[in-house]
Design brief:
The radius of gyration is 24 Å and the shape is elongated. By secondary structure, it is mainly alpha-helical. Helix 2 (17-50) packs antiparallel against helix 8. It has helices at 10-14, 17-50, 71-77, 81-94, 98-109, 126-154, 157-165, 170-200, 212-223, 227-257; strands at 119-120, 124-125. The protein has one domain: MetI-like fold (Orthogonal Bundle).
Length: 261
């Protein structure tokens, strides 16, 4: 295998341009679905972490109805199973490699679940694409959870008190007051996560997803050249990520203007 860059090798690589175009479409589709799944999952996890669900809170009260000081009853009364589960999920997913998570989802979880074997758009294999989306969505959800949680906590608590004084329920306050402001604050961070996912999606080629790196692997197997298709893949990723990051920066500046007094 030739390890040096040769201009004469690029025409051979461009003969497989259709594979790179298909890989580009798969990468974009995978990234969009990952962000959508990750955002929904992250919103649920963030609300779980911020919840005040304490099923054993009654143990923290004495016979007169006052809170007990210290002891096992006080500790158990503060136990929040929803927050514990969400925290465990976030910490585990953030502390383990993405490729390990992809392998566990594909070879572990989906080895027990029979997925229909068909292709859509003529070249995307569902039984490989779907596990890749699920694995990447689960990973993205863990990171987006912290972004959303910080966004919710950044909203002034006085607005929540004002909403309650107007008779809004907790759900209405979250929907109409807190979330719109939180999403505005964290929108640039969510968009940056989309750029990160575009780059991390290359991991999914290891389970047979036909992304850009899968095209590189196919060209390598057919022509026995590697560096040139890698350079083509690098150029494609750059053309995806660089303009996207600049667009994000532009809208971030536009949004920050309204916050200036």
């Amino acid at each position: 295998m030739d390890s040096f860059v040769k201009i004469s090798n690029f025409p051979m690589v461009f003969e497989y341009k259709q594979l790179f175009i298909q890989g580009l479409l798969v990468t974009v589709l995978l990234s969009i679905l990952t962000v959508v799944i990750g955002f929904v999952l992250a919103l649920i996890l963030a609300l779980m972490r911020l919840s005040n669900f304490r099923p054993f809170s009654f143990l923290g009260l004495n016979e007169e109805g006052f809170e007990v000081d210290g002891g096992w009853r006080s500790v158990v009364s503060r136990f929040n199973p929803l927050s514990l589960l969400a925290t465990a999920y976030v910490e585990i997913l953030r502390s383990t490699p993405v490729i390990v998570q992809v392998f566990i989802v594909y070879y572990g979880v989906f080895s027990l679940i029979h997925l229909p074997s068909f292709t859509f758009f003529g070249f995307i294999k569902f039984d490989r694409f779907f596990p890749g989306v699920v694995a990447m969505g689960m990973n993205s959800g863990a990171y987006l959870c912290e972004i959303i949680r910080s966004g919710i906590q950044s909203v002034d608590g006085g607005q929540t008190e004002a909403a309650r004084s107007l008779g809004l329920s907790q759900a209405q306050n979250l929907r109409f007051i807190v979330l719109p402001q939180a999403i505005k604050n964290i929108l640039p961070a969510i968009a940056n996560e989309f750029v990160v996912i575009i780059k991390e999606s290359s991991i999914t080629f290891t389970i047979g997803v036909q992304d850009i790196m899968s095209a590189v692997n196919a060209v390598k197997g057919a022509t026995f050249i590697l560096v040139e298709p890698l350079l083509v893949a690098t150029a494609i990723y750059f053309c995806l990520c660089f303009p996207t990051s600049k667009i994000i920066a532009y809208f971030e500046r536009r949004m920050s203007r309204g916050d200036k007094r």
